[in-house]
Write a structure and sequence with these properties.
This protein is of the alpha+beta class. It has 3 helices and 10 strands, in the order ββαββαβαβββββ. The chain folds into 2 domains: about 80 residues, 2-Layer Sandwich (Translation Initiation Factor IF3), CATH 3.30.110; about 100 residues, Alpha-Beta Plaits (2-Layer Sandwich), CATH 3.30.70.2970. InterPro entries: 26kDa_periplasmic_antigen, SIMPL/DUF541.
Length: about 220
């Protein structure tokens, strides 16, 4: 991109510290998300485990079929969580068996972000009674990550120029070292959706995502 030597792990040797300017450059790029990941499903409870298992399975099947009718591929619908719990009441400090609770959550991935509200409404109207999360991401973030990295390098150089001018020294034309700090583990930055019920369709706004980059740069000066 710039022909700068990039070292992602090594720091400059101690002998360089007396003649270097160290700066941290930051770059941000905003982009509209193009992928939605929704977690929703069915929670059933009651005293008879077999009965609520049957009820839950039927409801989940209806939800899946309704999502597939919206052209969501079957492979984009997967079980996110399946849990059976024993439920108790507490009366006068005593634990009393009340029944069972089954939670079956699905994770649905769609690249049609504008369809998210309709997808959630369709699932709910066909038996889903739990919407756990709605997250928006970028399917292929590399383009935006590179843009943010380029801005970060420019930002670092401008800071170094400002410092050099203030000190009255001459800055080297290229950095002696460039280090990109390790990225925080996890997926591409996402934003939780705003979920607002509507008489016609749930209003779910994906907003904008911010992709961030940072570099630590050392410039020699004379």
């Amino acid at each position: 991109m710039y022909g700068y030597p990039i070292n992602r792990s090594a720091f400059p040797t101690r002998s360089n510290h007396s003649s270097t300017i160290e700066v941290l450059g930051e770059g941000n790029v905003t982009a509209a998300p193009d992928r939605a990941v929704i977690v929703l499903g069915v929670v059933t409870d009651g005293p008879n485990l077999q009965a609520i298992q049957t009820e839950n399975a039927k409801a989940i099947s209806n939800v899946i079929q309704s999502l597939m009718s919206l052209n969501i591929p079957r492979e984009k619908i997967q079980t996110h969580e399946y849990r059976i719990e024993i439920v108790h009441d507490y009366v006068d400090g005593k634990q009393i068996f009340r029944g069972y609770k089954i939670t079956h959550l699905l994770q649905i991935t769609t690249d049609h972000v504008a369809q998210t509200g309709n997808l959630v409404d369709t699932a709910v109207s066909n038996g889903a009674n739990n919407v756990t999360s709605i997250q928006f991401t970028i399917a292929h973030p590399e383009f935006y990550e590179n843009q943010a990295l380029s801005i970060a390098i420019q930002n670092a150089r401008q800071k170094a120029i400002t410092i050099a001018n203030t000190l009255g020294v001459t800055l080297g034309s290229v950095p002696s070292h460039v280090q990109e700090p390790s990225r925080t583990a996890g997926p591409v930055p996402y934003m939780t959706a705003k979920f607002a019920a509507s008489a016609v369709e749930s209003s779910i706004e994906p907003g904008q995502l911010t992709i961030k980059a940072a570099v630590r740069v050392w410039f020699l000066f004379a």
